[in-house]
């Protein structure tokens, strides 16, 4: 800071220099008599007196004394004061002194008046600022409170919708599990029907027919395949709906989490006061605009999330109803066809059992007849042997009688009877041999018939074993309607 002159106190603190040998002219003193010794810049310098003397320099070549002045030290500086003879220095007159005091009084009064006006203006300004700040802060607090209420409202709506979506998703997940179990349970009946067809291919002979059982089994396989396709399509739809529900639920949870965080922040802001501890200056924060929505788009966003969730819930409920109807329909359809196949099996088994019984009856009669024919053949054979012995006797008699000498060779009654006897025995033997051949032929036919009946009986036994033991044995383990519907 530069010094524009010496203050009065500083002036008298300097050692008094010796009187100069050359005094200034009288005209110079008279000229300086009416000069006002106040420097205009002294009123703006608080560390100096209000007025100071501006001395006339004896040496006009000297510059004003400053802190950076490189001249003589303060003890050797010559004061810029005009000197008078006899050591008397005249600075101001008494009028100047009174005029200076009046000026100072007037300036003090003006300054005090201005200070009072300034204090009054400051009080009004401070009061206005306080009221304006209080009003502005109250409006901000009220807006924050309304914002907190809005967030609480949408939070409650989101919570209600989220709970409903969770319940609907859980119900749809249970329906998905039922569908999966029902689809898995159809595999057993399908394999049973397929194995029944394969087992019935092992029937033999005439029993390998395209009967009603086989037709019903083919129909059952078609129905089960159709039901499986419909269940699989429904399961795919349920899986897609579950993904849609999951996405809607995630949007709701994300929105609810944002609402909770926003509610926490706005509640904290709502509770802040001028006496709160966690308040600080954040310079320039009012110039940062990080908002991404307005109240209309903010409310519309949550409303769209809720509407999307409600739409997904409605579609999910409708899908659950259709799935339940599909499960009931497929179960009833499969069960009715299962009953038809079982009825066809029962009817076919009854027919086969009746045929088997009749075959067994005919086989028993055939065996009895064979036994009787065999007995008759034995009797015929014994009779033939007996007749042959009788023939031998008659022929031996005739042969012996041929050896009679000469006239003894008489054609007497004995000769005639022996000849007749031989002819009768031969005729009888021919008849017996014909009967024997006929009996043996009949026996062969009976044996052949017996073989056919026995083979047919084996076929019927095989068919009964396949239908009754293998097929019906497997079909007894067919799942119940409850299992088909997927309740277990």
TrEMBL record:
Belongs to the tektin family. It comes from Rhabdornis inornatus. One of its GO terms (biological process) is cilium movement involved in cell motility. Microtubule inner protein component of sperm flagellar doublet microtubules. Interacts with TEKT1, TEKT2, TEKT4 and TEKT5. Interacts with CCDC38. GO terms for cellular component: axoneme; microtubule cytoskeleton; nucleus; outer acrosomal membrane; sperm flagellum. Residues 105-139, 377-404 form a coiled coil. It is found in: Cytoplasm, Cytoskeleton, Cilium axoneme; Cytoplasm, Cytoskeleton, Flagellum axoneme; Cytoplasmic vesicle, Secretory vesicle, Acrosome outer membrane. The lineage of its organism: Eukaryota, Metazoa, Chordata, Craniata, Vertebrata. This is Tektin. Keywords: Cell projection, Cilium, Coiled coil, Cytoplasm, Cytoplasmic vesicle, Cytoskeleton, Flagellum, Membrane, Ubl conjugation. Microtubule inner protein (MIP) part of the dynein-decorated doublet microtubules (DMTs) in cilia and flagellar axoneme. Forms filamentous polymers in the walls of ciliary and flagellar microtubules. Required for normal sperm mobility.
């Amino acid at each position: 800071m530069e010094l524009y002159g010496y203050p009065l106190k500083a002036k008298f603190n300097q050692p008094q220099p010796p009187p100069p040998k050359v005094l200034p002219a009288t005209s110079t003193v008279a000229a300086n008599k009416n000069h006002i010794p106040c420097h205009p810049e002294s009123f703006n310098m608080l560390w100096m007196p209000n007025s100071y003397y501006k001395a006339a320099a004896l040496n006009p070549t000297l510059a004003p004394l400053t802190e950076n002045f490189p001249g003589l030290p303060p003890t050797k500086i010559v004061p810029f004061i005009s000197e008078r003879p006899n050591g008397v220095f005249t600075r101001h007159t008494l009028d100047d002194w009174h005029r200076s005091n009046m000026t100072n009084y007037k300036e003090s009064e003006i300054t005090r008046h201005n200070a009072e006006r300034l204090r009054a203006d400051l009080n009004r300004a401070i009061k206005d600022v306080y009221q304006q700040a209080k009003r502005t802060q109250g409006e901000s607090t009220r807006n924050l409170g309304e914002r907190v209420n809005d967030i609480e409202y949408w939070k409650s709506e989101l919570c209600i919708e989220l709970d409903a979506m969770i319940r609907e998703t859980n119900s749809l997940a249970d329906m998905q599990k039922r569908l999966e179990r029902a689809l898995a349970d159809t595999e057993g009946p399908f394999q049973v029907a397929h194995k029944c067809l394969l087992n019935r291919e092992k029937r033999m002979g005439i029993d390998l027919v395209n009967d009603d059982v086989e037709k019903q089994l083919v129909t059952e396989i078609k129905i089960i395949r159709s039901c499986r396709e419909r269940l699989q399509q429904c399961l795919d739809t349920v899986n897609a709906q579950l993904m849609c529900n999951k996405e809607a639920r995630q949007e709701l949870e994300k929105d609810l989490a944002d609402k909770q965080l926003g509610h926490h922040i706005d509640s904290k802001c709502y509770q802040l006061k001028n006496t709160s501890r966690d308040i600080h200056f954040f310079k320039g924060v009012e110039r940062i605009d990080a908002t991404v929505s307005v109240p209309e788009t903010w409310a519309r966003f949550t409303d769209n999330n809720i509407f999307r969730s409600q739409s997904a819930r409605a579609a999910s409920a409708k899908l659950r109803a259709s799935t339940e109807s599909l499960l009931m329909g497929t179960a009833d359809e499969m069960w009715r066809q299962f009953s038809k196949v079982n009825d066809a099996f029962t009817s076919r088994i009854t027919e086969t059992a009746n045929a088997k019984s009749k075959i067994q009856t005919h086989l028993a009669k055939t065996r009895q007849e064979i036994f009787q024919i065999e007995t008759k053949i034995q009797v015929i054979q014994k009779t033939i042997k007996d007749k042959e012995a009788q023939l031998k006797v008659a022929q031996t008699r005739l042969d012996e009688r041929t050896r009679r000498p000469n006239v003894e060779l008489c054609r007497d009654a004995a000769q005639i009877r022996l000849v007749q006897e031989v002819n009768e025995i031969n005729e009888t033997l021919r008849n017996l041999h014909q009967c024997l051949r006929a009996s043996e032929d009949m026996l062969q036919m009976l044996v052949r018939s017996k073989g056919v009946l026995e083979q047919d009986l084996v076929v019927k036994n095989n068919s009964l074993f396949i239908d009754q033991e293998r097929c019906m044995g497997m079909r007894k383990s067919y799942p119940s309607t409850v299992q088909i519907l997927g309740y277990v």
